[in-house]
Amino acid sequence: MVEVHEDPQLGLDSDEDDEELSDDELQEAFAKGLLKPGMNVPLIEPKKAINNVEGLKKCLAEFKRSLPWAERLDLTNLPADDLIAKAEGKAQQSEGGEDINAEDDFQREMYFYRQAQATVLLALPKLHKFKIPTKRPEDYFAEMAKTDQHMQKVRKMLLIKQAAMEKSEKAKKLREQRKYGKKVQTQVIQNRQKQKKAMLSAVKKYQKGMTDKLEFLEGDQDPKPKGPAAKKQINKKNPNAKKKYKDQRFGFGGKKKGTKWNTKDSHDDVSGFKAKMAHGKGGKGGKRGGKGGKTNKRPGKETRRKMKARK
Amino acid sequence: MAARGGKRAAERSAQIKAKRAKLNSNKTPQTERKTKTVSFTLDKEEASPNSRENIISVPPPVSAGKWTNKERVLVFSSRGISFRTRHLMQDLKTMMPHSKADTKMDRKDKLFVVNEVCEIKNCNKCIFFEAKKKQDLYMWISNVPNGPSAKFLVQNVHTLAELKMTGNCLKGSRPLLSFDPKFDTEPHYALLKELFTQIFSTPQYHPKSQPFVDHVLTFTIADHRVWFRNYQIIEEDASLVEIGPRFVLNLIKIFQGSFGGPTLYENPHYQPPNTHRRMIRLATAHRQKERQMVKEIRKEKRSEEQEVMRQDVTDDVFLTPADPKPAQIQLEAPEPQGQKKKKLSELKKKKLMKRKGLR
Question: Is the pTM value of this prediction over 0.90?
Answer without folding.
Answer: no
